[in-house]
Amino acid sequence: MTALLALEGVSRRFGGLAALDTVTLSVEAGEILGLIGPNGAGKTTLINVVTGVHPATAGRVLLQGEDITRLKPYRIARKGLARTFQIVQPFPRMSVLENVAAGAVFAGAAPSLKEGLRLSREHLAFTGLAQIADKPASTLTLAQRKRLELAKGLAMNPRFLMLDEVNAGLNSSEVDEALAMIRRIAERGVTILVIEHLMKVVVSVSTRLAVLHHGALIAVGTPREVLADRGVIEAYLGEKYAARLAGARPAEGA
Ligand SMILES: Nc1ncnc2c1ncn2[C@@H]1O[C@H](COP(=O)(O)OP(=O)(O)OP(=O)(O)O)[C@@H](O)[C@H]1O
Fold it and tell me: What domain of life does the native source organism fall in (predicted)?
């Protein structure tokens, strides 16, 4: 079966630096793929390449077999690929509702701003932001801004949603709420890629993990396989932490 998204030998150079180095990776429809690796490993660059923000300097990106490597970001968004941003920067003077509607219009999920505003109310209800729909985005807390990012992503009516550290800076109950939301989004049939530094979180939510190190993909597999991978333990996790995570992990399929 054709993968929903496939990277074939994808590299992205910034001058002399290979931020991504011949990465080959498939994402199947319906999965939650966790993308992990140390700071500077190339995780955000992978999202930027897929969404056309920093196109690949070599290799190809295929969406259900269609080559999207050189398309502009708005064309890629209109094919159902949405992302959130690690650094949350809503339009500060626009209301929460208007920010979400802007995402819908950008991705062509709404034919007009009016329709975008109507659809956006549903996404605000889903993400628990309905009560503050009319507040200026600049007044939101970090947790609310992260939810706004999710609502904007959903407003793009994605088949594939890439989440860049949506839990960073949240307290543990906020993380639990965000995780429940990610699972509910997946239940709606949206395929998800999640970048996450909190290992316990990414292990609990992901059906598969992919590990980047210095721009190269060093492991892909079930969480159980990846946590036991020698290369991943040496490059990223360390012995003790890997053992602790493996012990804390619920049984596969549970
Ligand atoms: N626009 C850019 N110009 C130059 N170098 C860049 C650019 N974007 C990323 N890089 C470099 O590419 C490498 C990979 O960065 P990237 O942000 O993809 O890593 P990351 O795995 O997402 O890191 P983190 O976990 O810290 O967010 C880093 O060395 C970074 O400095």
Answer: Bacteria
Q: Which of 11, 12, 17 to mutate to test the pocket of ligand 1 (most atoms within 8 A of CB)?
A: 17
pLDDT digits (tens, 9 = 90+) for 126-185: 999 999 999 999 999 998 998 999 999 999 899 999 999 988 888 899 899 889 999 999
pTM of the complete model beyond 0.95: no
Can you tell me the mean pLDDT for 17-34? 97
Instruction: Name which of 112, 146, 143, 147 is nearest 126 in CA terms.
Output: 147
Ligand 1 centroid to 9 CA: how many Å?
19
* Right CATH for 5-80+158-248 from 3.20.20.370, 3.40.50.300, 3.40.50.2300, 3.30.1490.480: 3.40.50.300
Tell me phi and psi for residue 167, to 5 degrees.
-100, -5
Listed by start position, the domains of the chain span 5-80+158-248
| Residue whose CB lies within 8 A of the most ligand 1 atoms, among 14, 214, 236, for a mutation test | 14
Residue-wise pLDDT tens digits, 84-139: 887 777 778 889 999 999 888 888 888 888 888 998 999 999 999 999 999 999 99
